[in-house]
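Hey, I was hoping to borrow your eyes for a little while. For a while now I've been wondering how a particular protein folds. The fold is given in discrete form, as structure tokens running alongside the sequence. Could you read through the record and tell me how the tokens relate to the sequence? Take your time with it, there's no hurry, and the full record follows here:
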Amino acid sequence: MPRAENVWRTWIVRGLALAVGFLAALLLLEVGLRVMPVHEGAHRLPVNEANPVIRFESNRQFLWSRDWNFSLRNRVNVNNHGFVSDHDYDAAGTEPLLAVVGDSFIEAFMVPFPETCTGRLAALLQGHTRVYAFAVGGAPLSQYLAYAAYARDTFHPDSLVVVVIGNDFDESLRKYNHRPGYHYFVEGSQGELELERTDFSVSLLKKVFRNSALALYLMHNLELGEAPSRLRRILNPDEETAAGHAVAGAEASLVSDSKQAVEQFLRMLPEFAGLEPEQIAFVVDGMRPQLYDDKMVAEARGSYIDVMRNYFMDMAREGGFEVVDLHPIFTHDFKTHHQIFEYPQDAHWNARGHRICFEEVARSTMLRNLIGFSPLQD
């Protein structure tokens, strides 16, 4: 019997030693990561009846970085209304207002604000026109409607720019995308598409993790939450292609559903923005990285993104909206200067991509009509 007690005592001591060693290792990692440029997170606010659009905690700066080795990093400022900008928004302002709506491309965590499309426009138009961006990563066309209505009711913009990316079409439909906090199209009782908000709350566990450098590193830099989807992509590489950041070779039903989302978005946008179509301009991203290689462009013809971006632009022009197609503009610039428009490790626009977006908006008929002159001299 004493021998059995000794065995148990040995196992207990070993277990305690392992636990203490594990906790000590976690503590060392926590202390070490606190002096490293760990992605601190943007702190999204709850989405509900009182706060109907997804935004961030206001008046806060945070460090953004990506990858295990912090390969990209930037200091991000969230303003008084919970959007990424170096400038506060004034609902009582009297200068004309240009609203810019988009997703993570306009949110642009990875680009210093003065180098973003919005930041450059704000600097160019200072003294003439206010430029306010309304954007959060993951927002599709359906969410752009919610932001347009929020801008209309709060700030009363005089013109609107909407940046459209390749995944905005199908991800507007809740049957294909259902992240909490966003607005999506759902099928109504008569078969028509209706806009519906999905509420979002911040869990207690997430609030606790926000105070841990180790937890932030695991969640944001290592993106452990994305591990299952990454594994699926590794196991099923044929399901996905880089053709414009959306699935290619799509079923006819996906294309049909996406076209319905586009049509409903274009029908609803003027009312939601409180503007006429000629006061609204769309900036449509090019097919990257295909545009860097003529052969890849040829192979992408007829793909889902090729079909959808062309359908969107055709329908928008038919509806009286201005459309800026960045594909030929990016292509010409690349063939001339041989510089790409995104980061090697991140598909979002880099400063060069943002500069070209800015230049095209600055040359737009919509902006010239708003301020009465062309602000960018070639």
